[in-house]
Design brief:
Length: 107
């Protein structure tokens, strides 16, 4: 399974955090296919530290949309970076060892 945490310094209500998590979960589907299968155990968590008050940032729906969009992009990029950085183990070959042409010119 894939575990992800999205954190923002914005104060979030439970419903705002849920909406951001729904949007951020799209990043999982962008990076993993098939995603959200019955046995994969993926989980995504969202939290806000409340350093910035939502009210100070303008329209709350627009702010949630901006955070959710950025979160989806960050989650998909993080998954791909993790995949490309992974090393093989005795039990499982890494992506780059399995598909070396896809990882050519990577450090």
């Amino acid at each position: 399974g894939t575990l992800a945490v999205v954190a923002t310094n914005v104060q979030l209500t439970k419903s705002q955090a849920t909406r951001i998590a729904e949007m951020a979960d799209d990043g999982v589907a962008r990076a993993i296919s098939p995603a959200h299968t019955p046995g994969d155990g993926d989980a995504l968590f969202v939290l806000g530290t409340a350093r910035l008050a939502m009210a100070s940032l303008g329209d709350a729906n627009a702010v949630v949309t901006q955070i959710g969009t950025a979160a989806a992009n960050a989650v998909s990029r993080a998954i791909v970076h993790a995949l490309l950085s992974a090393k093989s183990t005795a039990c499982q070959a890494s992506y780059c060892d399995t598909f070396p042409a896809a990882c050519r010119n990577r450090p």
